[in-house]
Amino acid sequence: xxxxxxxxxxxxxxxxxxxxxxxxxxxxxxxxxxxxxxxxxxxxxxxxxxxxxxxxxxxxxxxxxxxxxxxxxxxxxxxxxxxxxxxxxxxxxxxxxxxxxxxxxxxxxxxxxxxxxxxxxxxxxxx
Length: 127
What we know:
The chain is an all-alpha fold. The chain has a domain at about 35-115. About 70% of the residues lie in helices and about 0% in strands. The chain is built from six helices and no strands. Helix 2 (about 35-55) packs across helix 5 (about 80-95) and helix 5 (about 80-95) packs antiparallel against helix 6. The radius of gyration is 28 Å and the shape is elongated. The protein starts with a helix and ends in a 10-residue tail after the last helix.
């Protein structure tokens, strides 16, 4: 009696497994464009930078220095890929909770570099 129950359970499980073999889903792969992968990495790095800049203490210090949030967002969006990668890495390597001045210094350094190169115009030049 016990072997009949075991056998019928085993047969039912085997039948279910065989039926499920017909429903195996296939995976399709496609070529991912390099531009899509670069944009994904850039978007992740920009999100990391924005998260750091949106912190209350950093925002307060930037406001004290006279940096407008909207212009800062535009400036971050205009950074090159290498500048974004460098800034993101520096922000991730910065010590947690203690080095806000270093973060602000890095942002200020990037802004000065962009000013010298001529990408942005922070300091108005009077004729």
